[in-house]
Design brief:
The structure is a single chain. With 121 residues, the protein is mainly beta. It has a single domain, classed as Beta Barrel (OB fold (Dihydrolipoamide Acetyltransferase, E2P)), CATH 2.40.50.140. 7% of the residues lie in helices and 35% in strands. It has 2 helices and 9 strands. It has a 5-stranded antiparallel sheet. Strands 5-6 form a two-stranded antiparallel sheet. A two-stranded antiparallel ribbon has the order 8-9. The radius of gyration is 15 Å and the shape is globular. The termini are far apart.
């Protein structure tokens, strides 16, 4: 993958627009291969606590993470986007990450024991 192009910040938006995006911390309870995906990916099952519950996500994170490294890992997820069909799989949440120097995904998470289901603020 080519190195990512760093772009200028997006246009300013009102804070209320940011609050429309519901970003929560979840715990990966299961990670599986996703051989049907066009680009290498895993199928993730993520516990987002009550009242959201268990959701699934497709994530192109195979460059830096093995399935064994993902179980019990806490990750940031957007929980209020419409589900997306990814091949035969319905992805219900967007698992967040940032590009490394090669353009591969590095997961966004927390460095302390944040409460599962907690909302970003």
């Amino acid at each position: 993958m080519a190195a990512p192009q760093i772009t200028a910040a997006a246009a300013q938006i009102p804070f209320d627009d940011f609050m429309k995006v519901d970003i929560r911390i979840g715990r990966i309870v299961k990670a599986e291969p996703f051989p049907e995906a066009r680009k290498p990916a895993y199928k993730l099952t993520i516990d987002l606590g009550e009242p959201i519950g268990i959701k699934r996500s497709s994530a192109q994170i195979t460059a830096h993470y093995t399935i064994d490294q993902l179980t019990d890992r806490k990750v940031a997820c957007v929980v209020n986007f419409e589900p997306r069909q990814i091949g035969p799989f319905m992805s219900e949440v967007l698992t967040l990450g940032f590009p490394d120097a090669a353009g591969e995904v590095v997961l966004a998470g927390v460095d302390r024991d944040a409460v599962v289901g907690g909302r970003l603020f």
